[in-house]
Write a structure and sequence with these properties.
Distance between the termini of chain B: 23 Å
Largest sheet of chain B: 5 strands, parallel
Helix content of chain B: 25-40%
Mean pLDDT of chain A: 92
Bound molecules: flavin-adenine dinucleotide, iron/sulfur cluster
Radius of gyration of chain B: 30 Å
Number of helices of chain A: 11
Helix content of chain A: 25-40%
Shape of chain B: globular
Radius of gyration of chain A: 22 Å
Low-confidence stretches of chain A: none
Distance between the termini of chain A: 44 Å
Strand order of the largest sheet of chain B: 10-7-6-18-29
Oligomer: heterodimer
Strand order of the largest sheet of chain A: 2-1-3-5-9
Order of helices and strands of chain A: EHHEHEEHEHHEEEEHHHHH
Strand content of chain B: 15-25%
Strand content of chain A: 5-15%
Number of strands of chain A: 9
Number of strands of chain B: 34
Structural class of chain A: alpha/beta
Mean pLDDT of chain B: 95
Largest interface: A-B, 29 and 24 residues
């Protein structure tokens, strides 16, 4: 079997996805046998120009991790799309916007002010902010544009598969590699993960739920057998796609939703708000307000990984705002 | 597949057309995708209007219909009917409310028209995704539950029982009879309350079709019209009903005789811990007050009652019992309470002696009351002058805004009774005299002729000056301020909802109106049905009213329940929820959310399952289901999003 051409690329992300690929241990050797690595900034050296030289579709598979915040990232996404037969949104950032997507709760100006002027460690007496061009004695220097918001990969270019997770778990990466190797890929647009919510995989015992307030995991002695929600710990598992094997809840940590919305869920955060609100044991607004006040940062909690693809961000119009 | 949509824009006479430009809305609708015909018409709900829809369906082959008119609460059934007459499923209709939501909320033509266009656009996009839904029919249980054994509940129970059907009558107190049992005479005819009420109470106890559960309350209601399951909790009487003959020996023997304020006498007399509420009580069985009885509270008593009872009917081991009853419909007749006059301290109630409430006065004049019917002051003397104050807590911004409807007449009744029984001078203070019923005005005239002083002006204050009660008021007819010394004051207090009305409303799944009384389906045209099918209301729990109106409502509610029984089958809303087992993750969040307890859990498949017959389609579970496994028919995401996007487009 001829080797396939593989690219791995990284935009707005933490790099954990690269580490996850390395985590496949023995499998990584198989990857080496299976594929020519044409681009992988973490492992190999490569230049834009090398990539530009490739013909359309010359890359067989591209694992793309990271969301899109900068014009340079968008340009790379477009370039890789053009050169790749199969483009896989790899990890939560690329699939849903991920953690960088939380920045969409703030405007660009606020982010700049905070990052370049207000943080205690900033030393910027002239209050200089990043600009796309600046003229210096030697000529003009350029920087990529910092967009008004963070996008998921599929808001910029068409995506063939999604491999969610922060980062994707090894068993799913292995499954994806096997599928690529055997040419048995699922129908385009598929999410390579489970088809229910995390609760389905979560081994905890579930009962009717009624809570009178919320606790963070470090504030309670967690009962290892009972559903975390029933213990007042907000868990995003109920609206999050399965496939992870409930890695977090098995070790007493609540699900934070890195697999994105469960298959039928339109908006992960909104659905979590509505279902979590449903289990409050309160009959009047004052009590509800009191109970809700025990929850730290509900917006950031419920939209932890999926804000850019939420209805708040015009999901129904493809999320393309600019 | 494409749909063929017809849009019908109604003028509603001038109601819509005077503000919104209905022709423009119709023209615009004609340009929308899939719309094959758009018309405007003066009254869409009229026969010719409906005919228009029907003909278009048949001739133009319409597959969906949008009516832009009034609220669907008003005419959705009308237009559904029009579709069905043209052999189109009624659920292929969508209404856009361009009256209440457009023409009635602005006088700006452009705004009304633009908003109407948006709503029509939303409706057109939504109706595209409508699916035919078949009505569901279930058979009904022929038994009826009546809650509350006042005159309203008694009337309803007797009527259903006479028609040959089973009734469970649940009464909270130890005896039925309600407030009326406390009265001496009843306006306008002044026949004695007991003489007209007792025969009906006895009829209840003798009817083979009525099962009377006194000292009992409904704790829970499950199910739906035709098939309710009701959980009733019955408190222990500590008396074996079958053995007790109502002789009263235990009450005389009780160690606490004449020590406990008698609630039936409004606290004006004292009774024992073992007691019988009143001589005509039904059932005529003693009851032991567990909050007072020494044995039950302190664990120690010489138990004179046990010794006194020759029937050995006393049983201190009785416990609360819980029963489940199956019925097809429910009548709530829980009545009213009286406004607490202490909340209006300017009238001196609870501060000065000889200031009574109306209901206390009823007990004072009652032959079996604390004074054997003699009207006496605290010192045991006949009063030389009595003031009767109307509207205490009624028609008053600070308390109840509404008119309690019976106090003018009962005040006139009190005046007559004082005149009849004493030589006292009587002063009545009223805002307006409302004597609207049959023979009421005649009764008022008669009492006027008896020499009662009617002073037009609300009593402002009751004070004590040098040991003498005085009533202060502005006489609006004389235009003078008056201060009248009297020996006795009767405060005719407002009729108010029962203190637990909210809880009862929740148990039975009905709503309350702003004044706190139970809310009827329609204030004029549907006064005894509620928003929950099969739950009817009668008497003062719906609003204050006199006995004739109460009895009429009791009969009306009985007729509603008999109608449920007569059809043998009831249509239940076909809109229901369904949980997709392929999506359900078994998290169990929905289980506690259904107000009708329609959701069960399949332990084998680990998924939630919804009982379609019980589901009312309220959507609580769909909102709560975190996986979106639950779809409510007629309210799918697709339909809702299409409508929202249409409105916003
Ligand atoms: C001072 C006064 C004088 C009046 N005089 C006249 C008059 O002369 N003529 C006239 O036509 N009208 C008169 N009325 C009006 C009359 O009292 C009412 O029309 C009538 O009593 C209403 O009957 P009802 O059955 O609706 O309510 P109620 O008499 O209040 O009966 C309700 C029954 O339901 C029971 N109940 C309540 N809650 C529950 C529960 N949760 N579960 C089970 N049982 C429950 C109660 O114990 C009670 O037995 C007078 C009213 C007042 C206040
Ligand atoms: S702990 Fe979280 S994932 Fe597990 S059952 Fe409860 S809500 Fe679902
Ligand atoms: S829609 Fe859901 S919550 Fe509402 S009645 Fe049906 S099953 Fe119960
Ligand atoms: S809430 Fe939804 S996912 Fe959870 S048990 Fe109910 S139907 Fe299933």
């Amino acid at each position: 079997m001829p080797k396939i051409n593989l690219a791995v690329y990284w935009t707005a992300a933490c790099g954990g996805c690269d580490v996850a690929i390395l985590d496949t241990e023995a499998k990584i050797l198989e990857v080496g046998e299976l594929a020519n690595i044409v681009l992988w900034p973490l492992a190999t050296d490569g230049k834009y120009a090398d990539l530009e030289k490739l013909g359309p579709g010359e890359i067989d598979v591209c694992l793309f991790h990271g969301s899109i915040r900068l014009s340079e990232q968008e340009a790379m996404a477009r370039l890789l799309r053009e050169k790749s037969k199969v483009l896989i949104a790899f990890g939560a950032c690329s699939s849903f916007g991920g953690i960088p997507g939380l920045a969409n709760f703030h405007r660009r100006e606020e982010i700049f002010r905070r990052a370049y002027q207000e943080t205690p460690s900033t030393d910027n007496p002239n209050g200089v902010l990043p600009e796309t061009q600046v003229r210096v004695a030697e000529g003009t220097l350029t920087l990529p544009e910092f967009y008004h918001q963070v996008y998921s990969l599929d808001q910029v270019v068409p995506v063939d598969y999604y491999l969610p997770g922060c980062p994707p778990p090894v068993h799913l990466i292995v499954a994806a590699i096997d599928a690529i190797a055997s040419g048995q890929l699922p129908p385009k647009g598929s999410v390579i993960a489970g088809d229910k919510s995390v609760c389905h995989e979560c081994p905890r015992e579930k009962q009717e739920k009624k809570v009178r307030g919320f606790k963070r995991p470090h504030e309670v002695l967690v009962d290892p057998n009972r559903c975390l929600m029933e213990q007042g710990i907000v868990c995003n598992g109920p609206s999050t796609r399965s496939g992870c094997g409930a890695r977090c809840t098995k070790v007493n940590m609540p699900c934070r939703g890195c697999f994105g919305p469960a298959p039928e869920v339109l908006d992960q955060g909104a659905k979590l708000v509505s279902s979590t609100a449903s289990i409050l044991d309160a009959s009047d607004e004052a009590t509800v307000a009191e109970m809700v006040s025990t929850m730290a940062d509900p917006a950031g909690l419920f939209y932890r990984f999926s804000l850019p693809v939420s209805m708040l961000q015009k999901k129904r119009q493809g999320g393309k705002v600019s | 597949m494409t749909e063929r949509i017809g849009v019908y824009v109604c003028h509603c006479g001038h109601n819509i057309a005077a503000v919104g430009d209905v022709e423009k809305v119709a023209q615009y609708a004609g340009t929308l995708d899939n719309v094959v015909i758009a018309r405007d018409y003066k009254y869409m709900c009229s026969d010719p209007g409906q005919e228009l829809i029907k003909n278009d369906i048949q001739q133009l082959g319409l597959t969906r219909v949008v009516v832009a008119a009034c609220s669907p609460r008003m005419h959705e059934p009308t237009f559904k009917g029009a579709l069905e007459r043209a052999n189109l499923n009624g659920y292929l209709l969508e209404m856009a409310n361009i009256r209440e939501q457009c023409s009635w909320v602005t006088d700006n033509t452009q705004n009304a028209t633009e908003k109407a266009k948006s709503l029509v656009r939303g409706a057109v996009r939504r109706v595209y995704y409508h699916r035919p839904i078949e009505e569901r029919v279930v058979s009904v249980n022929k038994a009826t539950l009546v809650v509350g054994g006042g005159i309203a509940g008694i009337q309803a129970a007797l009527q259903i029982a006479e028609a040959g059907h089973k009734v469970y009558l649940v009464e909270r107190e130890a005896s039925i009879g309600g407030q009326m049992a406390k009265f001496d005479k009843t306006f306008p005819t002044m026949d004695c309350a007991a003489c007209i009420l007792t025969p009906k109470m006895v009829a209840v106890s003798q009817s083979p079709n009525i099962e009377l559960l006194t000292y009992a309350e409904v704790a829970q209601v499950d199910g739906y019209v035709g098939n309710f399951t009701v959980t009733v909790r019955q408190k222990p009487r500590y008396i074996v009903e079958d053995l007790c003959t109502g002789c009263g020996d235990c009450t005389t023997a009780c160690v606490l005789k004449n020590r406990i304020p008698d609630a039936f006498d409004e606290g004006l007399s004292k009774r024992s811990a073992a007691y019988i509420s009143f001589p005509q009580a039904i059932p005529l069985k003693a009851v032991i007050d567990e909050k007072e009885c020494l044995l039950l509270t302190k664990g120690k008593c010489s138990k004179n009652c046990v010794e006194a009872c020759s029937r050995e009917a006393i049983d201190f081991s009785q416990k609360e019992t819980v029963r489940r009853i199956e019925v097809g419909s429910i009548i709530l007749a829980t009545g009213f309470e009286l406004f607490d006059a202490r909340k209006a301290p300017q009238y001196g109630y609870g501060i000065y002696d000889d200031v009574y409430t109306g209901i206390e006065f009823e007990r004072l004049t009652n032959a079996s009351g604390p004074t054997q019917g003699k009207i006496l002051t605290k010192r045991g003397e006949e009063p030389k002058s009595v003031a009767i104050l109307h509207c205490i807590g009624s028609r008053d911004e600070n308390y109840q805004k509404y008119c309690s409807r019976v106090c003018c007449m009962s005040s006139v009744k009190f005046a007559h009774l004082v005149k009849e029984k004493t030589d006292a001078e009587v002063f009545e203070f009223y805002i307006d005299m409302r004597t609207f019923g049959k023979q009421y005005e005649e009764f008022y005239t008669r009492v006027q002729e008896e020499g009662v002083n009617f002073i037009r002006g609300k009593g402002a204050e009751v004070a004590k000056v040098d040991g003498q009660l005085v009533v202060r008021a502005e006489d609006t007819l004389l235009g003078a301020y008056r201060e009248i010394p009297v020996d006795m004051v009767v405060l005719n207090t407002a009729l108010v909802p029962r203190h637990d009305a909210e809880k009862v409303a929740q148990i039975f799944g009905i709503s309350r109106s702003e004044d706190g009384f139970f809310l009827e389906s329609h204030i004029k045209l549907d006064p005894v049905t509620t928003s929950t099918d099969g739950v009817h209301i009668a008497g003062c729990c719906q609003s204050p009213k006199d006995i004739p109106d109460t009895v009429a409502q009791g009969s009306a509610a009985a007729a509603q329940s008999l109608a449920v029984i007569a059809t043998g089958k009831v249509k239940i809303s076909p809109i229901s929820a369904w949980s997709d087992p392929a999506v359900c993750a078994g998290c169990r969040i929905c289980l506690g959310l259904c107000p009708f307890k329609a959701i069960g859990f399949n332990e084998e498949k680990k998924v939630a399952e919804i009982n379609q017959a019980v589901c009312k389609g309220c959507g609580s579970c769909a909102a709560g289901c975190p996986s979106n496994a639950i779809v409510v028919s007629h309210f799918s995401n697709q339909q809702l999003l299409a409508e929202i996007e249409g409105v916003l487009a």
